[in-house]
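Why does this matter for the project? Reviewers at the last site visit asked to see concrete outputs rather than summary tables. In response, this paragraph embeds two records directly. Each consists of the residue sequence and, immediately after it, the corresponding structure tokens. Nothing has been edited or filtered.
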Amino acid sequence: MNHTRVSMCRKGMLLVLVVATALGGCKKQDDRPKVVLLMKSLANEFFKTMEDGALAHHKQREAEYSLKVVGMKNETDVAEQIRNVELTIAQGADAIVIAPADSKALVAVCKKAMDAGIIVVNIDNKFDEEVLKDKGVKIPFVGPDNRKGAKLAGVYLSTRLQSGDKVAIIEGAPNAYNGIQRKMGFDEAMIGSNMNIVSSQTGYWETDKAQPVAAGLINEHPDLKAILCANDSMALGAVTAVREAGKTGAIHVIGFDNIAAARQLLKDGKILCTVDQHADQLATYGIEYALEMLKTKAQPADKETPVDLVTAELL
């Protein structure tokens, strides 16, 4: 009797094991599209805001796609971002949404991703048209008109200046398309308003690099009236340089990106204006377009997103 009970118990345990194994083997695989968001430095508040917006979008639509967010240590580490794309290709993804650190250097590896069957959508910093043409590849750009945004800020600045006043520009990284476009917008506004652009130098997008540039400009041009910065991080450095020179209120500073730190300085009257390209939405625009392309197999086409002037009166 005991032997029979033991035998039946063993058979019951075996049956449970077989059923559990079968159920485990039938576990549904995650067939959601895999989207990877590749950004520049998360030390820059703009890209942290972009990440937050993407994560919020994913939380609302988690059933529709999976999301992985990858950032870099600093704005100009192009080699690191190339490695991140290579790793994404190796790990497998359905779509890459990328804010490239360099408008030219990232094209080849993104073409490699496309050759592997991955949809690539370009946000924030537009790929160089000539390099795209040379590589025979079309990658859609989803983002704002940076030249138009910078011109909005420059024209607003000109209302606070007199004809012939001296101004200087602190540019973004030299090979960044958005930085080049912002400089063109600043140039257009200043030349159109008959201002005197005495210098234009790069601050490589970073506060600690822009500050000594701004300090040098202030020292070299004692009658400087304004510093136009291609992003808010550099504007923060310019504000510090202006304060340390004892010229707060005498030299206007403008930025671009509308980060929280810049908004506070706007309220305090230390930054005259900035430009909002809606960082919290920019990645979601790219993600939604990537999902649309995966679903419809649509041919890539650029999509312009909003850009708005921000002043203290508008806060």
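We now turn to the second protein, recorded in exactly the same manner.
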Amino acid sequence: MRFMLSVALFLLVVVPVSAQSQEPTFADLAERLLPSVVNISTMQKTAPDAAGADEMLEGMPEFPPGSPFEDFFKNYMEKHKKLLVPKNQRVNSLGSGFIIDPAGYIVTNYHVIQEADEIKVTLHDDTSLTAKVIGKDRKTDLALLKVDAGKSLPAITWGDSDKVRVGDWILVIGNPFGLGGSVTKGIISARARDINSGPYDDYLQTDASINRGNSGGPMFNLQGQVIGVNSAIYSPTGGSVGIGFSIPSALAENVIKQLKEKGSIKRGWLGVRIQTMTEDLAKGLGLPSSSGALVSSVTEGSPAAKAGLKQGDVILSFNGKDVSEMRKLPRLVADTPVGIEAEIKIWRQGSEKTLKTKVAELPQTEEEELAGKADEETPKQADVAAVEVKGLGIKVAPVAPSLIERFGLKNDQQGLVVVEALENSLAVEKGLSEGDVITEANQEKLGSAADLQKSVNRGRDQRKPLLLLVEREGELRFVAIPLTP
């Protein structure tokens, strides 16, 4: 009995100690990294708001001309109006950043310093310095600042976010709610998140606590390398709920390098409009999988046009890198140096082809679409009789002046106009609506409703989806509609 009791006591003591020894500690890592993370505060001046003062004085009594009270209340109101209108207003915001060069170069978010009239950087030792903007990029939400500290500053290095796996430990340091130098830990919850913040979304998601003021701060791997720039959170309350997003270093490092060297960004440009591949679209195009980016239109005179890319092509890889999904292509093209020759692997009419193109620079401003205008008003004509396409649940008609006016179409519009879309039909389920123009079916031009009906019947017999090219408000997109006998 005495022996058994001693064994039991031994187990009670040893098990908790063993479990405790397995808990990770980030103390050494945090101590090494904290001096490289800075707090950023900005100030923005706003114009005086005289209209606001007028609203506050509404309801004051008015007196008829010549009244003994007129001058008294006029002077009273003018005096108090001046007091109510501030000479200027100062709007302050807080964020984070990190030092990437001992000379004083600091990375942060674009939205942290956006429209700031004054930027202050506070180092880990509480030294406050004025920063100037070296460059900023709204599309990736990144900015590069520079401070002159009169000494070498502790800098940190970039890591490879492409090697990060879901479940890896990470460390976040920043300035939440202005508290400064706060450390939180977590794991990578997901990769390649698209949160609709810009054309190059490819965020790392983490459950580490990220709050207001953490924006622009670094996300570290366990080697102390920056693998992400904290940029956004999902939160119904404004505080952390365990869903934070960081710009991966694979994207940020290249952008910051260009900002440091040139002060601006030069992005590659191909000149295509693309859309997401779906299983139905893949079947309609004869593709074995739904990977790739479907070309819905090609810009005239663009590198894509010169290379021979066509509407309906599916881009499978660009410059040696696979396009596993549509939204990867814009980033691959943007990251490609301007002027180099890139190889494009495409799928066209049942087989793979390889094209080559010289990458151009993305235009600074988007081209404005020119709307055709008739020199004279077109006489009104009666609507052309609409014909129902059996199996789709829509009625279509050839383009006519009355339909051009009714749906705001281009004067040179070609194709079949959806005049009526029946509720709960296959076509409506896939997104078609009245006013859409169907220009192609299974990559063949349409001249009449009979042409479209033939394509539907053929697709039913072959058990293949119907692939439509649809134009809506000047934008072309492919729509795949599954057909069954």
